[in-house]
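Explain this fold:

***
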Amino acid sequence: TILLMGVDGREKNDAGDFNDPNQADVDVLLVLDPMEKKISMISVSRDTMCQIDIVDAAGTITGTAKGQLELSYAYGDGADLSCQLTKNAVSRVFYGLPISAYGSIYMDGIADLVDEVGGVTVTALETFDSFTQGQTVTLNRSNTESYVRYRDHSTAEGNNQRMERQKQVLLGMAKGLLSKVRRSPASILNIYRAVQRNVTTDLNTASMVYLARIAAGMQLNDDVIKVQGESVLGTGEHAEFNVDETALYELILSVFYEPIDG
């Protein structure tokens, strides 16, 4: 299980910069199941209300508080500490689920990644900016950011609508990456080098190639599983997403557990 984060900043700052906080707009658990030979992606709303770590000016965790998941990244350094804090928060949401690794990417890195897979073709879900609902468009580095970041702030459902568009792009990029690593697992290194400037991960290059080789023999789930819940406007008209605990429990059982016969 690998936590993937899309950060709302354009470029990654140097590690240790606590003065320019960014937030994790996208939080996705990538699940590789070698027994079933399948890859699943589970999307967690950035507005999810959960226990997040609080840190002091030295980056030491001093306690926890309830807040939106996206803020966990902002309490860190924009690099490894931010990733670790977000990983801790997501693990708590999933009842302490172990998360094996993490990777975050900033917007310029996403633009580079879209180019690396040859673009991502989607059917626009809404009309905004240069996009028309129902129109088929190929996203590239010039228009991807607009498509994945636009949000209607007048409704609590604005982020949920944005997550549906992000899901399209995630699936498109995942399919493009899988196509490349199936031809050559080592190609993951060239892809990584193209985006490395704006990526933070605790995976080394040997692990990347190993995981790419395993993933090449798996089937990608054709949908992104979404953690269910309810969005409301909270204090200050900020959106808050409250997880449906029953639905989450059933999701965890279906993805991570095997039923015992009898």
